[in-house]
Amino acid sequence: MLLSPCGPLQVGRTGEIVENLEILSDQGAALEIRNLSDVVVRRCRIWHKNGPGVRLLSCQRVHLEQLEIVRYDAPQRGPLGAEECNLEAWNCQGLSLRQVRLMWGSSGLYLPDCQRVHLQQFEGFDFRGPFPRGQLLLLTRVAGARVQHFFALNPPETSFPEDIVSVFERRRVHLSAGLLVGNNSPSGSGVMFEHSRQGRVLRVDAWHMGNGCFSAYPAQDVQFEQVRAARSHAGDQGRVLPLSGGLCFASSPDSTGIQVIDSRFDQLCDPHRVRWGPVDRFQARPERLQPRSLARLHLPWEEVSRSRG
Questions:
Q1: Contact 171/194 with Cβ under 8 angstroms?
Q2: CB of 252 within 8 A of CB of 218?
Q3: CA distance linking residue 226 with residue 207, whole number of Å
Q4: Global pTM?
Q5: Contact (CB, 8 A) for 206 and 233
Q6: Chain-wide mean pLDDT for the chain?
Q7: pLDDT digits (tens, 9 = 90+) for 13-29
Q8: What is the spatial distance between Cα 295 and Cα 260, in angstroms, rounded to a whole number?
Q9: pLDDT in tens, 120-163
């Protein structure tokens, strides 16, 4: 599939369809949509630096599908010099996203003050901060979100993440079917609910985490169900020691209604650091685990190599 090259783009009309483009920007947002409704962006590769890949401001019912968003020219390792997220959406309603790959940004998806969000089939690689960024997904002050089928990989040699999935000052957030691999942050967790309530995490794995795997700090009425944590670490992976010493499940003293249901853990760095803090219901046990299998994205312009025998 051929993509048409272009420079930075600002969508100008409600209902516009942006498709089949390769967008390159070395200053400011590569693609910006402001105060519009019912815009569709699909089948695009977006390269950005010195600004976000996609910026949405006060939009309604924007749909994003089959995108690759890359913060190019990142340093060989460690944090970016300034915040440059792959995709940021401010004060948007009805945002939907499907089949999106995010690479080398400060964070992958940064969504403050958004309502009715549906994200599915997305993956992210090697997020670079600087602190407090570093997430695959950061949901801030939002009501109502469904997040499904997601994957993140942060190599300890190069990445600079914080929490991998962060839910901050939110309610009614449901996460399901995810695999999170790698976190060298001294203070970040795999999944963090912070000052949030009415959350559910279902069938999500957290592998190779340092400071924590699943956390509520503080939170109310959050349920972790069929989650799995494995191969935690408590060593210095280039960013000093994890503050918790390799904790698995964490709940702050002022959290209430926290439940861990039908969950598993394996090969923790410290078998005495399975849980900390109040949990109303705790059902987690050791079991030999293999990483959860998730289908990787195949975007339209990527050729599939087939053997002829």
A1: no
A2: yes
A3: 14
A4: 0.96
A5: no
A6: 95
A7: 999 999 999 999 999 99
A8: 26
A9: 999 999 999 999 999 999 999 988 999 999 999 999 999 999 99
CA distances from 88 to 30, 57, 170, 309 (A): 12, 9, 17, 45
The conformation of residue 8, written as its DSSP 8-state character, comes to: -
Question: Identity (one letter) of the amino acid at 128?
Answer: R
Question: Mind listing the pLDDT tens digit for each residue in 33-80?
Answer: 999 999 999 999 999 999 999 999 999 999 999 999 999 999 999 999
pLDDT higher for 115 or 293? 115
**pLDDT for position 263:** 98
The residue written with tokens 């944590």 in the block is 229
For the record, the structure tokens of 95 come out as 């945002």
Cβ-based burial of 275 (10 A; exposed 0-12, middle 13-18, buried ≥19)? middle
- Locate 217 and state its tokens: 């700090």
Cβ–Cβ under 8 Å, residues 31 and 53: yes
The torsion angle over the Cα atoms of residues 303, 43, 94 and 48, rounded to 10 degrees, is 100
Amino acid identity, residue 111?
A: L
Q: Do 172 and 143 form a contact (C-beta atoms < 8 A)?
A: yes
